[in-house]
Inverse folding.
């Protein structure tokens, strides 16, 4: 416990304390500063957009991995985990090589806003898939067959039988991928160019404050990010509890 | 009549038929979904990753050789490996401890601790770095000046990098072990206790063997995460060439200094390790299930 406090709790508390130390005025000024505000907006909106894509693509991929059988499926399985294990800076470089200046596809989004979207999409890929997959595996197929035998078509079966049981897993995965998106840094360094007002995300904003020795400002922005992470954790905890209560 | 009825129920299906997985209904939708999933993963993951490999070997092995003959890069690679090993050891010991605590003990604040353990996964690495600097910075941190007075510098040196790395990889081991520990229960340990085994014996002979695979899995994940940490390390390390520059920082540095070959080669090495980690996990996982 002492170790946990020394490593995690005290440092995190220090951020909040430093932010408060600066006083409400400084805190508010930092947060509402044009550049910071646009960074926060960009981060949150992009993360939300990416989460939406994941909500659709995640269950789809999980479905293919669980229900479908075809040659090369295990390769797909490994590919899902790559974004999680790949160092984020390498992830940025990897995406840059396909979607950067000398892209073989002719798509150059380096230093543009879609780059942020793409990077978030890459690093958050595993979350929804990996949350949904085990639930889908456990799902009793008899119920689906029963529904079908009672005349439900496939869409109805999906909407009334499968979707409700997947919802908590999708929600949990979405929360995680939102949190991950908001906090992403490494993959953006090379890919987005960090142009103020355009592709600068919140994490980069904090780093430049640190480098300019503006600790109070950095702590203020960090507090905002911390608040977002805590909210996500609380949401996750509530979802888990609801699932556990349902049995 | 009654005979046939009973007969029908008791008769088991032939073995092969029972073992065969349920048949997949192949409809156009199946193929469309399969195609969408494969294409999505191909464009998002497979193609970009494979490009790094081809870029690295554009001119044969020369870029890898150049990389390994650069003393600063070698120091960086060694530092990364050293830090990763340290972080794995620390996280394994405390991970086992905290998981046992979470599963076996009831105490006030358990739910809070459980929730707080997820923070490192969802908080930005930059925030992690900032937090550590605020507390342990030798200049104006909370504990930093005291520690540097006794000659112990954390920020801008290796201990800081180890702390940052340990922080971000902290939950991985615990999240692996908690379900395993919950599943094995305590009956076997109680039996061992009733036969006179002391706490050490119970841990080494009963608990440890049953969570063995969970630990291996956790170690692999922690290793991958530790090697790849970038943001938090960037803040706390000071990026001093040949001293506190890790492999991930080398990738950035080389790319920004117009040495994409070197960047790709370093990235390739890092990617190899992480892909190897995933493959190891993929092989272990099924064993773990049965």
């Amino acid at each position: 416990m002492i170790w946990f406090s020394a490593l995690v709790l005290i440092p995190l508390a220090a951020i909040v304390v430093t932010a408060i130390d600066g006083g409400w005025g400084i805190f508010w000024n930092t947060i509402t500063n044009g550049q910071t505000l646009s960074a926060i907006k960009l981060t949150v909106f992009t993360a939300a957009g990416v989460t939406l894509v994941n909500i659709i693509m995640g269950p789809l991929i999980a479905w293919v991995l669980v229900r479908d059988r075809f040659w090369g499926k295990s390769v797909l399985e490994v590919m899902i985990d790559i974004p999680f294990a790949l160092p984020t800076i390498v992830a940025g470089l990897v995406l840059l090589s396909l979607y950067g200046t000398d892209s073989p596809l002719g798509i150059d989004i380096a230093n543009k806003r879609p780059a942020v979207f793409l990077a978030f999409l890459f690093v958050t890929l595993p979350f929804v898939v990996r949350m949904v997959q085990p639930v889908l595996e456990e799902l009793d197929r008899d119920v689906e067959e029963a529904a079908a035998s009672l005349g439900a078509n496939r869409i109805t079966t999906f909407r009334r039988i499968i979707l409700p049981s997947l919802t908590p897993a999708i929600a949990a995965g979405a929360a995680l991928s939102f949190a991950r998106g908001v906090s992403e840094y490494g993959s953006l360094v090379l890919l987005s160019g960090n142009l103020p007002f355009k592709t600068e995300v919140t994490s980069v904003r904090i780093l430049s404050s640190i480098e300019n020795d503006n600790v109070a400002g950095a702590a203020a922005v960090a507090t905002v990010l911390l608040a977002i992470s805590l909210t996500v954790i609380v949401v996750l905890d509530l979802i888990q509890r609801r699932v556990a209560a349902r049995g | 009549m009654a005979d046939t009825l009973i007969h029908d129920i008791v008769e088991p299906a032939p073995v092969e038929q029972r073992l065969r997985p349920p048949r997949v209904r192949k409809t156009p939708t199946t193929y469309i979904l399969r195609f969408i999933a494969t294409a999505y993963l191909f464009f998002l993951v497979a193609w970009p990753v494979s490009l790094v490999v081809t870029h690295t070997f554009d001119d044969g092995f020369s870029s890898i050789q150049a990389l390994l003959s650069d003393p600063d890069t070698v120091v960086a690679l060694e530092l990364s490996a050293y830090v990763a090993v340290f972080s794995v050891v620390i996280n394994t010991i405390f991970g086992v401890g905290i998981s046992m605590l979470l599963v076996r003990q009831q105490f006030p604040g358990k739910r809070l601790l459980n929730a707080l353990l997820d923070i490192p996964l969802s908080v930005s690495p930059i925030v992690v770095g900032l937090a550590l600097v605020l507390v342990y910075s030798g200049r104006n941190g909370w504990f930093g000046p005291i520690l540097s007075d006794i000659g112990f510098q954390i920020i801008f040196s290796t201990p800081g990098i180890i702390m940052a790395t340990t922080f971000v990889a902290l939950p991985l081991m615990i999240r692996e072990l908690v379900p395993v520990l919950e599943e094995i229960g305590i009956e076997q340990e109680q039996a061992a206790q009733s036969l006179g085994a002391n706490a050490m014996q119970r841990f080494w002979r009963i608990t440890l063997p049953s969570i063995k695979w969970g630990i291996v899995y956790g170690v692999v994940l922690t290793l991958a995460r530790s090697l790849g940490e970038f943001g938090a390390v960037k803040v706390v390390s000071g990026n001093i060439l040949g001293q506190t520059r890790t492999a991930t920082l080398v990738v950035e540095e080389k790319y920004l200094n117009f040495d994409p070959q070197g960047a790709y080669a370093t990235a390739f090495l890092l990617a190899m390790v992480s892909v190897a980690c995933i493959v190891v996990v993929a092989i272990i996982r099924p064993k773990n299930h049965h």
Remarks:
- Residues 196 and 202 of chain B are 10 Å apart (CA to CA).
